Amino acid sequence: MTKVNRTVEGIINYMDGASHLVEFASSKFEEIVEVEVKGRELVYTKTLSLVMVLDLSCNSLSGEIPLGLMDLIGLQSLNLSKNQLEGNITDKFGGMAQLEALDLWMNRLSKKIPGSIALLTSLSYLNLSHNDLSSRIPSGNHIQTLTDPSIYAGNCDLCGFSLPKC
């Protein structure tokens, strides 16, 4: 979904105060989003950093959670609830440092909750209920502040903090 490109534009040379030649590369960063809608590919290059909230709930989405969403590093709220997403919750969620709200309620996500979820120190709302998650809820300083057991409800084989012991 997104790409961050770094292009080197040139090498800059200068002499420092001690008459040493100093070289460094001049570069620029560019954000690009490529979206295919009804067979048309659209490319956005100027507005990607403005995406802070993404709500794709109730859209009958299927398959795995697209890894391209993890490149939206400025995202503060992601709602993928009430779809038919399946597979694992990717460990790459841990890189979304700005994420404050994550709603994956009522999908078909399975296996374990990745430990990287505990790295999301800005996370104040989490809903992983009504999936097929199993194993132990990851521990970590911040995730243990989310104490409401209903955020894990409907995952029969899930256990750990705020739920029965494993």
Automatic annotation (TrEMBL):
Q: Where in the cell is it found?
A: Membrane
Q: Which InterPro entries match?
A: Leu-rich_rpt (IPR001611), LRR_dom_sf (IPR032675), RLP23-like (IPR046956)
Q: What keywords tag this UniProt record? A: Glycoprotein, Leucine-rich repeat, Membrane, Receptor, Repeat, Signal, Transmembrane, Transmembrane helix
Query: Entry's Pfam families?
Result: LRR_1, LRR_8
Q: Where does this protein chiefly localize? A: membrane
- Name the Gene3D superfamilies on file: Ribonuclease Inhibitor
Q: What membrane topology does the annotation report for this chain? A: Single-pass type I membrane protein
The record's GO CC annotations read: membrane
Q: Which PANTHER family match?
A: LRR RECEPTOR-LIKE KINASE (PTHR48063), RECEPTOR LIKE PROTEIN 30-LIKE (PTHR48063:SF112)
What's the protein here called?
Uncharacterized protein
The taxonomy runs: Eukaryota, Viridiplantae, Streptophyta, Embryophyta, Tracheophyta
